[in-house]
Amino acid sequence: MSNENKPKGQNSKLGDWFRTFDSLKIMKWSVYLFFFLFLVLPLFSVFLVSFTGQPVNILGSLVNPDIMATNIERLSNASLEHYQSLLGGGTYFYALRNSLGLAISVSILVILLCLPLAYAFARTTMPFKKTLAALCTIPLIVPTFISAAGFIIMFGRTGWVNTIYQSLGFDGLLINAYSMTSIVLIQVFFFFPFALWPMVAAFKIADMSLEEASNNMGSKNWTTMFFVTFPLAIPGIISAALLIFTVSFSDFGTPIILAPDGLNLIVVEAYREISGFFNWAGASILTIVMVAVAAIFFWLQRYITKNKDYGTLSGKPKGMRLNDSKWVTRSLLVYTCLILLIPMFVLLSVLVQSFATTWGADFLPRGFTIAHYATVFTRSGDNIMNSLLLAGGALLISMIVATLVSYFVVREKTSKLDFMSSIPLIVPGIALGIAYIQTFNTAPLQLTGTAFLLIVAYAIRRMPYMIRSTMGTMMAIKSDIEEAAVNLGASKLVAIITVVGPLMLPGIAAGSILVFVTVIKETSITVLMAPADWAPMSLMVFQNLLRGEVYTASAMAMLIIVLVIILQTLANKITKNSLY
Amino acid sequence: MGSVKVQNLVKKYDKATALKGVDLDIKEGEFYALLGPSGCGKTTTMRCIAGFEKPTSGEILIGDKVVNNVPANRRNCGMVFQSYALFPHYNVFENVAYSLNIRDLYSGSMGQRAKTFARLMSRRLSKPTKEIQRKVHDALEYVELGHLAERGVNELSGGQQQRVALARALVMEPSVLLMDEPLSNLDKKLRNTMRTTIRRIQQDLKITTIFVTHDQEEAMSMADHVAVMRDGEIVQMATPTELYSSPKDPFVADFVGSSNIYEGQVMETNAQGNPIVKITDNIHLVSDTRTDKKDVKVLVRPEGIEILRKGSTVKSENVVEAKVKISTYLGPTIRYDLELEGMDVMVEEEFQPNTTLYAEGDTVSVHLPMERVVLI
Ligand SMILES: Nc1ncnc2c1ncn2[C@@H]1O[C@H](COP(=O)(O)OP(=O)(O)OP(=O)(O)O)[C@@H](O)[C@H]1O
Ligand SMILES: [Mg+2]
């Protein structure tokens, strides 16, 4: 009996090895390979280049000994020389200083602006809350370079606001569109919703019982507000500020349009180094600095929100007493409307310009026409198509990868993948673009300048959003449903395809739309990496702006905005996770 | 073919040891219950058999084949999950047809496989084969759900969902049927009907069944054999009657039904050779359990104790006086909590019409028949 069993046992061992090395494992390794090739490798190469000052071809070294030799030589010459200019008060130093200054001022201003807003939404019976909440999401929909363009329409030399200003008898300009001030203003008024909702959450969660106690002890409402409510909400507020810092620091659209010649900002500087001068050393140092700064602030933000779940806004906590004083709610309503007025004016300016024949130094355009839209549709049909194709490609990649990552992270507790897939959150678009261009511009993986690399870049950059969406639905799928499928004879892969996949569909759909939308809006990577024959809409708007064809730029911009609004509404319908 | 053997099964998790050497020997066609308190390792045992957990050591045999290295999807164990785990995107028919479709997916021509795959993805793409229709129909009829085939599973009651889960497991003609607390989500009345349904089907099909529960009544009333587990070990394996009348230790005794348990010492044996146990100085009971031990646990089931009506007598040494503390009317039975020299005694009597209940403070004579006084 036992003699018979032995050879059989060995056979089955080999069979087992094959069986355990199943398709699911191959998938997992493919996902790892994907992240390694298109995330870890580019960032690591940039890191090396920042020391060597010359391209380092890691992949090439693996296949070709000659390249290996060159690389080793370059590495042996590595030095900190290139970093010295950063600290030594050179251009890079000023660029970093200005960018930090910008990000800090924007964060502080946003928090100050949001305090009354957050209080209004969280703790009062302000009228029209729902509508106002919906309006508050609009600034996020507009790509920043379009807001910047709108700002020029208002505050340019012949902008209509400045025109009014001068007609009132003042001299000069109210605000110069091409200045640090206007960059700050654009970012404040278009990024504040990022901070608003976390702050609303913080205000809702801040311990009510303490407030009650303070009220019972006879404090007036407003003293309670300043000495009890605000301090309790402070962790949430700080976290919101840090988030704004990262967003502002890595924003490319505003500064590239509005930064005057004398104003060095790190994103603009990096863009010039790579696209103008092919200065590998400079571009990589700036990339490393950008990633490092973003990473520090991202980490700080995570650290502060750790163990504090500001994400769950399930209704009002019991016993919450909302402030319903007429005086308070009305003034807050006026304040909210005033805040919203500015982004609305910016958008309106773009809208009006897109229909204008000419719009010079007057309050209104000379006449109206739909010619610009006709031009857009006849001349730029290809760009619209390109946008859709590129976004579609990015969506497909991120859909597959995100589904698999969610599966492995939730079911197999693969925390390494979880970590890896969240790295893109700290890599500013410009930095990712530079890393890609450097890494993939030589054999064996010569991809720079291809649509494929652009699509991958989009996909990687938006992966965290997709994963957040799919991970949510994946967690909601109980593992026993999948086990039931396996129990009924399906292999794990078949179980995933037939059972898990269909059940994840809502999450996948919502995430997909989100990816699609952000890709259509994406500026930095597009400007840096889009090949001429694949130019998407956002690149066309950008180039038209630079060329001074502002009317077509506006028409195309409106098209993007409308597309984004439609898709975003669709996504909200699907997830149904609106805040109110 | 359908027998199950588990030998010295050990399962260690990072921090805890869930199973510390479990042995089971289940004959083909037997209905076997795994009974034990929460956290004792019942689910873990079952998941090891189904192939969802890899045992740390030990062997599992289904039929006479070692299945340790057979992946879960080839073990042909039908499992009914506690949560039913129905597929919410399929209707009743498709849920039941799933295993048949999967079987087709792995066999047959490429064209047929493609059709089957399309069918699994959406019912609109391809119709099920005649054979699948017949088998699913039969399985649904069997659980009395034939009329609900086209319903969505979320439009079913708990009991109906339970039946779908059962039909889904049965339709694949499994060599073993595994059920993890299948009735715990149902209300009491439904639980009773499902008990009979499951038992009927099991008897009809003669299918080897392992049934996990922490409800002793469920285990005792349904199973041919019961294995009582504690802390990752099997304490006793026996038929329900054996388990009840001669539990191996106080844990089992307590778990398979409420009981009075006392410490006692065997003093001597009487003329018939039966041991006399001293419980307190004044209370000495005769038992017919033969034992070598001196310190023993004395177990008397509440319904084994008889309260003697006024005037009636019995010829027995085991009669004592006790005081009524509480009397509770439970419908078919009456429960008395008595006090006997500072000890609590629980008695359950059948309710006879036209009798009055003893009242609090009454003194009664209590008879503990020798054969109901069990020493362990
Ligand atoms: N994945 C796991 N990781 C670590 N420990 C586990 C895991 N699964 C189960 N355990 C532990 O193993 C022990 C047995 O668990 P099991 O689920 O088998 O209990 P059970 O008898 O089915 O209980 P219940 O009646 O509550 O379902 C428990 O102590 C549990 O904490
Ligand atoms: Mg269990």
From TrEMBL, chain A:
Family recorded in the similarity comment: Belongs to the binding-protein-dependent transport system permease family.
Organism: Salipaludibacillus keqinensis
Top-level taxon of the source organism: Bacteria
Topological category with respect to the lipid bilayer: Multi-pass membrane protein
Record's keyword annotation contains Cell inner membrane: yes
Entry protein name: Iron ABC transporter permease
UniProt GO BP: transmembrane transport
PROSITE patterns: ABC_TM1
PANTHER family tied to this protein: FE(3+)-TRANSPORT SYSTEM PERMEASE PROTEIN FBPB 2, INNER MEMBRANE ABC TRANSPORTER PERMEASE PROTEIN YDCV
InterPro entries: MetI-like, MetI-like_sf
Residue ranges constituting the ABC transmembrane type-1 domain according to the UniProt record: 96-301, 384-571
Compartments where located: Cell inner membrane; Cell membrane
Cellular component GO terms held in the UniProt record: plasma membrane
Automatic annotation (TrEMBL), chain B:
SUPFAM superfamilies, per database record: MOP-like, P-loop containing nucleoside triphosphate hydrolases
GO molecular function: ABC-type transporter activity; ATP binding; ATP hydrolysis activity
UniProt keywords, alphabetically: ATP-binding, Nucleotide-binding, Transport
Highest taxon in the source lineage: Bacteria
Domain ABC transporter: 4-256
CC annotations in GO: ATP-binding cassette (ABC) transporter complex
PANTHER family for this protein: SPERMIDINE/PUTRESCINE IMPORT ATP-BINDING PROTEIN POTA, SPERMIDINE_PUTRESCINE IMPORT ATP-BINDING PROTEIN POTA
Name under which the protein is recorded: ABC transporter ATP-binding protein
Organism, scientific name: Salipaludibacillus keqinensis
